[in-house]
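FORM 7B: Structural annotation worksheet

SECTION A. Query
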Amino acid sequence: MSEALQKTIEKHLGPTLKGERRYAGLRPKDAATLIILDREGTLPKVLMGRRHPGHTFMPGKFVFPGGRIDLGDRSMPAVGALHPRIEAALAARVVRASARRGRALALAAIRETYEETGLLLGVKQAAPGRVPDGSWTVFRDRGVTPDLGALHFVARAITPPGRPRRFDTRFFALDRSLIAGEVEGVTGPECELDELAWVSLPEARRLDLPRITHVMLEELDHRLASGFAHELPVPFYSFRHGRFVRELL
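SECTION B. Predicted structure
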């Protein structure tokens, strides 16, 4: 672990988080987040969106797009397959793990990114199978199919007990070159994200971010410096005995 990553963890995840008793039994929901990465310039950039200030959950915060699995994510066709190392990491420390569940998480990250940003990520070719109803039909109509082989698995983090909303979130990354289309009008004053911005990692750290996003930016930086290979271990953050624990999957 780099010194910068250690300091970021201590700063943003070090203090004990006291939960509320009425939410003590709330179980985390499976969720997926996508970091779109632009490595063409001198400094890598990421796409971040600002949540509408009227939201009750993280109002005004800059975040990566993401959300929970939908039914269609379990059957959406794709080209390519998740790297075997990613499949193994997605199955680690999971009750009733399956390749189908890991695949659905990866596809949920891509679909949620479209729903929040209007970006269609994948390759320009017809889907090799039936496309489920819902948002995936836009991919079909635009001739875009997700490419699972292009995804990277950056990290996993579980919201501490006692929070009013808890997620078991997998953070994926995908290169900007995989943007194969865009639908206008998905972001703005009346939408979930009212602003999108491509920012370098130093610029992103200065934004108003959730605690865990600070840590994910540092994890991404560390991963890039280590070669950004699929075979790199995947950090897993969970909350035990009043503090966050970082393990490697």
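SECTION C. Observations
The mean pLDDT is 90. Residues 99-117 form the longest helix (19 residues).

SECTION D. Sign-off
Analyst initials: ____
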